[in-house]
Specification:
Elements (H helix, E strand, L loop, with lengths): L3 E5 L6 H15 L2 E8 L15 H22 L7 E5 L2 H11 L4 E6 L12 H8 L3 E6 L3
Parallel strand pairs: 1-2, 1-4, 2-3, 4-5
Helix pairs in contact: 3-4
Length: 143
């Protein structure tokens, strides 16, 4: 039995499958459901000279927009009562951090089929699966 399910979403239409599966599992096991989104950004300039001017303002703006979008997304899906968790930085690292911080025992994340060169590189789903402190359910998003 699970007690706390973390659904990692990216606001894409295929992530509807992620939230449906997470909601179904949380209801079946009477578990708490939290919805998480991660704002990925790179605050260091490509030359390596340090932080770009205005990086903090850009980061704050990205987080603010993502927070508004997460609130609206949850409201649109009748998930207003669910804790809404927002991370920023590495998607894998933030999902793992949020799962640890909130004592989640299941992470539900989307999984895309990979082809060609992408097979040589790890996906976010693979990285989370290998580093997670709990079970991970990868929901297939490709038809």
């Amino acid at each position: 039995m699970y007690s706390h399910v973390l659904a990692a979403i990216d606001f894409s239409s295929p992530c509807e499958r992620v939230i449906q599966r997470a909601l179904s599992l949380s209801k079946t096991t009477n578990a708490k459901l939290s919805v998480a989104h991660v704002v990925e950004y790179a605050p260091i300039d490509p030359i390596g000279e340090g932080l770009l001017p205005g990086t903090l303002e850009i980061t704050d703006e990205l987080r603010s927009r993502a927070e508004q979008k997460l609130t609206k997304w949850c409201a649109d899906h009748q998930l207003d009562e669910c804790p809404q968790l927002l991370g920023s930085g590495s998607i894998k690292g933030e999902i793992i951090r949020l799962a640890n911080e909130h004592n989640c025992d299941l992470i539900v994340i989307g999984s895309h089929e990979r082809h060609g060169l992408s097979l040589l590189f790890g996906s976010t789903e693979d990285s989370v699966r290998h580093a997670a402190p709990c079970d991970v359910l990868a929901v297939r998003l490709d038809d």
